[in-house]
Design goal:
5 helices, four-stranded mixed beta sheet, four-stranded antiparallel beta sheet, alpha+beta, 235 residues
């Protein structure tokens, strides 16, 4: 484990460097980690997500806890069948026969093993160069979030997703493969809401209740589990 963290620090420093904050205002890369408290291979990937979130403003790093490891002795307290389904839908869209943890999906397109920081860093770097097809603003208004979508590219069939998440959650795991460990998870997704379709032809405004969690993000994604074409944090 110590070797992993040394490798992680070197990779983040050399590959991300100082460009992360420089591009933050122009482009946000969405990184989805599919993880489980019942998976012994997941803690290093959870730590990698935590590190990326803490240091790189141009990455929206989200942890989706899946439920298909619950049977081995510990029920993940953040797991949701909807998150497992999202991961499996990604797999089907990519032509994969199975899914695994820890897995990262970057930009809704590239699938990376969450234990390989160099691979993760390289894919994030590539996605920084991809132009978004929508400009998104999202702001908190009382108990609601107000979202504005402005097209920047061609029309298409898109889904608008509202993600609610918590910045930090600490769990003492008592059973299963990680028994005895206390882990602090970053950006744990607590709610995912599909706000409907958008064709990208004209600007659109949406008002919705603030989701569960102390933070929120908006993703616009091509229908059929295609690429994420725009993202924003709610402020």
């Amino acid at each position: 484990m110590r070797k992993f963290f040394v490798s992680l620090a070197l990779v983040l420093a050399s590959t991300f460097g100082s460009t992360a904050t420089a591009t933050a205002a122009d482009k946000l890369v969405v990184l989805e980690l599919y993880t489980s408290q019942g998976c012994s291979s997941c803690p290093p990937a959870d730590a990698l997500l935590h590190k990326i979130d803490a240091e790189y403003e141009d990455v929206i790093a989200l942890a989706f806890h899946v439920d298909y490891w619950d049977y081995i002795g510990w029920k993940d307290v953040f797991a949701d069948p909807a998150f497992s389904k999202r991961q499996k839908d990604y797999g089907r869209a990519a032509g994969h026969r199975s899914v695994f943890t820890p897995q990262m999906v970057i930009g809704g397109l590239d699938h990376v093993v969450g234990l390989k920081p160099m691979d993760v860093a390289n894919v994030i770097q590539a996605h920084r160069a991809v132009q978004d097809k929508v400009q998104i603003s999202a702001r908190r208004a009382g108990q609601d979030v107000v979202i504005t979508l402005v097209p920047k590219g061609s029309e298409g069939e898109y889904r608008v997703l509202l993600i609610g998440y918590t910045a930090a959650e600490t769990v003492a795991i008592k059973r299963g493969e990680n028994a005895g460990k206390t882990i602090t998870y970053a950006n744990t997704v607590r709610e995912m809401t599909d706000l409907g379709k958008w064709n990208g032809a004209s600007a659109k405004s949406i008002r919705h209740r603030w989701p569960e969690g102390d933070k929120a993000a908006v993703l616009v994604q091509e229908a059929g589990m295609g690429p994420v074409v725009g993202a924003a944090r709610a402020r």
